């Protein structure tokens, strides 16, 4: 039996909602590799670390882990989208490099989104101008710091690493045609090079690219 009593004090007002989600078995579709990547974020959170310290049987561990990851996705992790013109810096080149400093952002709203990114957050990689499609998923490996390409302290960068490519890219036309994505910032704020993505929007695009 999973002992959640020590976690109750930490969870506070979110306890009831978290407990309800923990019993939710209809989890969003997502690849095994991405689930494995998400679990790396869990130990860095005090609430989840506390829950993980509870003993669970090996038989129930797989389902419990998926439920726990659902909680991480719902209450802890944030999601983003960054744009890059493929002739300047493509998803393929990003994978070859293995890590990228996301520099050159010169829009305050986009800068604010970079500042809000946390280590472990997931980021859609979007090919702009050419292709106009979401092609893969990256992860924030280093949080915001001074953009090394300028002395102006207004501008920031984050470091990203690739997680996985979508099995099939999701085009801007497909996104615009999907009712569940009608409010996504990619469409509403089309000129923004770094935009926020809601959890439901992230799950939907992953589903469309599966």
Strand and helix layout:
Layout (H helix, E strand, L loop, with lengths): L4 H7 L3 H8 L9 H7 L7 H7 L8 H16 L2 E6 L6 H7 L2 E2 L6 H9 L5 E6 L5 E14 L9 E16 H6 L7 H4 L5 E4 L1 H10 L2
Parallel strand pairs: 1-3
Antiparallel strand pairs: 1-6, 2-5, 3-4, 4-5
Textual characterization of the structure:
The structure is a single chain. The chain has 210 residues and is an alpha+beta fold. It has helices at residues 5-11, 15-22, 32-38, 46-52, 61-76, 91-97, 108-116, 172-177, 185-188, 199-208, and strands at 79-84, 100-101, 122-127, 133-146, 156-171, 194-197. Strands 2-5-4-3-1-6 form a six-stranded mixed β-sheet. Strand 3 (122-127) and strand 4 form a beta hairpin. The protein is globular. The model is unreliable at 1-31 and 42-47 (pLDDT under 50).
């Amino acid at each position: 039996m999973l002992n959640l009593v020590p976690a109750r004090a930490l969870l506070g007002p979110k306890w009831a909602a978290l407990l309800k989600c923990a019993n939710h078995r209809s989890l969003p579709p997502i690849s095994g590799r991405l689930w494995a990547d998400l679990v790396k974020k869990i130990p860095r959170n005090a609430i989840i670390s506390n829950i993980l310290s509870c003993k669970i049987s090996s038989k129930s561990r797989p389902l419990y882990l998926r439920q726990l990851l659902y909680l991480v996705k719902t209450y802890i992790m944030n999601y983003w989208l960054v744009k890059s013109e493929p002739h300047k810096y493509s998803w393929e080149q990003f994978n070859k490099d293995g890590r990228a400093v996301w520099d050159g952002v010169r829009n305050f709203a986009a800068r604010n989104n970079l500042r809000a990114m946390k280590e472990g957050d997931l980021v859609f990689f979007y090919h702009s101008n050419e292709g106009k499609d979401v092609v893969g998923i990256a992860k924030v490996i280093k949080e915001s710091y001074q953009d090394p390409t300028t002395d102006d302290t207004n501008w920031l960068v984050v470091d990203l690493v690739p997680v996985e490519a979508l099995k099939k890219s999701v085009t801007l036309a497909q996104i615009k045609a999907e009712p569940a994505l009608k409010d996504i910032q990619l469409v509403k704020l089309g000129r923004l090079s770094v935009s926020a993505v809601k959890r439901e929007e992230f799950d939907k695009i992953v589903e469309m690219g599966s």
